[in-house]
Design brief:
The chain contains 13 helices and 14 strands. The protein is of the alpha/beta class. α2 packs antiparallel against α9, α3 packs across α9 and α4 packs parallel to α5. Bound molecules: pyridoxal-5'-phosphate.
Length: 381
Amino acid sequence: MKPIHMVDLKQQYLKIKDEVDAAITEVLDKTAFIGGPQVEKFAKSLSEYIGVKHVIPCANGTDALQIAMMALGLEPGDEVITPSFTYVATTEVIALLKLQPVFVEVDPTTFCVDPEAIKKAITPKTKAIVPVHLYGQSCDMEEIMAIANEHHLFVIEDNAQSIGSDYTFKDGTVKKTGNIGTVSCTSFFPSKNLGCYGDGGAVCTNDDELALKLKMIANHGQSKQYHHDLVGCNSRLDALQAAILNIKLPLLDSYIDARRKAADFYDNAFAGNDKISVPFRAPYSKHVFHQYTVILKNIDNPESVRDGLVAFLKENNIPCMIYYPIPAHKQKMFASFGGADYDLEKTDWLTHRVFSLPMHTELDEEQQSYIAGKVLEYINK
Ligand SMILES: *Cc1c(COP(=O)(O)O)cnc(C)c1O
């Protein structure tokens, strides 16, 4: 059996090695390291793929969120509603810009932000909502957009984990995640569904005026050379990374198929087990399985069972991860933002029980039946 990795970037690279190596050599030959044709081509291809009018590439997904919040003109003290159950980058940029994060619950079934919780958290100071399409599943965007429209709020989609996912509206309209909110942000971190070989990110919008501002802010607030109209930052997608992404973007749908196939295998293997709750697939979302995250249930002491399971799998050369063991509102980072004042029962419940298995494009059935077998062996003992 091939060794099992949480994410197997090496095997994936070997399948496209010739194209990738040639593309890298071409960038080196042309010494077009900053901007240039590869970056332009990628921005255009990604906008076609997502169906969104403007794609502004930038240095990483965290910058994408920061640039989006800066371009929307959010001011210190403005309240931004975000789930606490997410990767730290989502919530960190809110605090970095001296905005006030307002942490709300996720729906423990979908892992995504609960629209009812958003409604309850709105105050006269609320300016924006940041739905996070967690693990590869879209948030309930129809509900969230309705709430945002009613209260005149911006919607900043955190699409770092769900690029390529589709959302189906009640009238049958299908849109890709990242093409629904006011603006969306994504990441090309190597392990993401569309990963480059370093850091990369992008901001997307259909709003022409906002697109101009996003572009300026990502480039020192510059309107034309040496004219700096806004306070911005320096956040560029590297040409080498763009060249790699130009090869990988046409493969994204096949990568998603491979992830979904692996998810089906796990689902079948765990079917009927009352201690493992497999990922729910919301009817409105095409799940792209950035992670395969299960919930341990009907167990008295889930945290210690989970610790034992992690150790047991490690002994058997199976990596696994807890995404995420500490929710944002309990991070020390947010102590001065009132983090400790929150009581998010569902979020806490999840953080004690979630468990993510190896998920990537290169898993084979031999590996997966070994993984599932070892998980069941421990859980059922
Ligand atoms: C990865 C990730 C980010 C940040 O992306 P980077 O490119 O690592 O900065 C933001 N939000 C979520 C949900 C992520 O998973």
